[in-house]
Amino acid sequence: MTKNTVPDQLPRCVPCRLAAIGAVVLLSAGGFAYTAGWLTPQRLSAPRIVNTLQAVAGQPHPGYRRNHAKGLCVEGYFDSNGQGERVSRAVVFAPGRTPVTGRFAVPGGNPSAPDTSSPVRSLALLFQLKDGEQWRTGMNSTPVFAVHTPEQFYQQLLAATPDPATGKPDPARLKAFYAANPETQPFQTWVKAHPPSSSLANAAYYGINAFRFTNQAGDTRAVRWAMVPETPYAPITDAQKAEKNFLAADLDERLQSGPLRWHLVLTVAHPGDPTDDATLQWPSDRENIDAGTLVIERSTSQENGACRDVNFDPTIVPAGIAPSDDPLLAARSAAYALSFKRRTREETLHPEVHQTPTTHGERS
Question: Could you tell me the domains of the chain?
């Protein structure tokens, strides 16, 4: 999928909204589920993964995303310097500004979870290109992912499902999963060596999956990218560890003093570098291209923010960018579409979920 035809904001009317949801499911879930073999009964399916995400959350949370449920919307623009055109003909890399809608979030399906419930934060972005195309991407604050296949991700979810007796995951079960899956070691090692940042603003965010970039000359290269902050990194403090919602409050306070900036750095692979395994980093000597600056100007709550109705499917990309052979991409696309369908249907059937504003970052 290289052309995006899915609207970023769904109509508020029920018939229009349900029709748009259907389009998302047919385009995203249908096509990618088929090519990934998900429609075969004996294979892992998007419903099994989404149902398990709900189980890990501990209780139903109608109207919320099944993962990264706690989040807040941001808006701004991407100021391209033209350097990205060396590897991609995508319009987003031409010199100039592109409007951006984004979302910071914390992993997990509980919208009321403490900010410290996970060492990982995420940043999802939608670039609205001037020719009508879109580029949607979801990034994490770790450069590698814990697992490299949908099946491993599913087994990790099962291991993290709360024990009914305690309401918490069984440590022995999690330990057994990690022991049986040594591919998780790079992720664990990185997290142990890098304390979470003290702010959403001073964290780097990585597009952990590889994509294929093609330039005007027709040359295709494998590329990963990162959003590298201009704000200096500082680790989380002891005082912050005791707070439940410090990330959103900190971001709001920083934005009152002016916009926040990250540099979009494209990392270009060499032939032979793995493109189908998000648990592995590429060697540090690979070429890095500073393609421009992401500028975040304002944040809003999830109640009616601009990101509320966006499905940040990472396979929605403009011409000049294409998904790689990483199996997680098809899985993410199908699971995101199903999660989107469920939460928007719940919002339609239970409109009261939007009637009581919550603290910044607690609505999806």
Answer: 14-354 (2.40.180.10)
